[in-house]
Amino acid sequence: MLEIIAETLRITIAVALILAGMLAIVIWVRNNTRKLSTLRLFVQIVAVVLIFLGLIIGPFGQDQWEYLGTAPKDIAIGKEIFGRPYPDGLTVPTFSCYYASGRTATCVVWQLQSYLFPDFGTSSVYSTSGVERLAIATGLLILMSIIFGRFLCGWICPFGLYMDLLTRLRKALKIKHWTLSDRTNEVLRQSRYLIIATFLILSVILGMRAIAGVELVSETELGRYLEIPFCQVCPAKPLFVLVEGALGFMDVDYMLSQTIGDFALTGWYLTSINLVILGVVTVGSFKIRRLWCRICPLGGLIAIFSRFGPFKKISLIKLTKVEEKCTKCGICKRVCPPQVTEVYDDKGGDVTVSSCILCFRCVEMCPYEGCLQVEVAGKPIYKSKNWLKEEE
Question: What DSSP state is assigned to residue 70?
Fold first, then answer.
């Protein structure tokens, strides 16, 4: 009983501090061209703590994952909330990396690959079948995409925060950013879907022995081939693992240990491939705002279930424009981190597109009263303001 009271008190205090922080920003940041951006940065930092350190949820030092360190483990989610083990953490469509030891939440890209191969038929850890796990992960992906859309990319994703911090560093050094051509930007956007198709098809091919009893590639059950292919090249994995190792939340020796297999000999958590890609993405994101978001397959998955077909009509968060109030000043296009042009080009109405990360920087910077607005379930919650008049 005392443990429950202590846990409840800790959660209450944490929620109160978060709300107090948000309220303080709203009250004390007077510059209307900075207020929302400051609030977004605060939310991003809080999200990182909740996702990776799990300071609120706990518990610490689960025996099952002792070798990974003393961070809170995801088994608490399934066992204590859902009533049966769901040991990979709650599916959340952000780069809440499985490999980093917090795992309060887990990236759905890892789950979709892993549940196809190598874990479709695994029963030693899971009490659910491969089909059930895929259904849970896909269902939560669709549900959260409809509710939040790419707001998760703009406000919650830890790797998005990393890129935003690089942008802030570049600005502090007074270095100008690079702007990609519209054609290059469009090629990068389309590549998201090619990456999604590639990692899913590879996972199905490798997992066919467990899925259908037909082994398309020999010795796939021996760990000989590339498992969970996208995670081997994902730049977020090495970043989060290195940070948690540096903070003492992961066992560095285990983190650096080798694994078996022709394509995994460089390590399980840190590989030469993903370290090189992290370096390239880091340098690129320093000069090009939100570079990774333009090719991110996770952002592409969210977009599929929030901006296309029937999902577009029922998605809750939308960015709308009143054509009569737009003077084509172009500010919305210039300040957009992923270089979305449709907000400027489209005539009016719903101007939310698949490449928009819903950071709302365009709304914050639009100097025309009510020209752009954020709607949740059809209700406007935030509108552009005439900040030019306020500065006179």
Answer: S
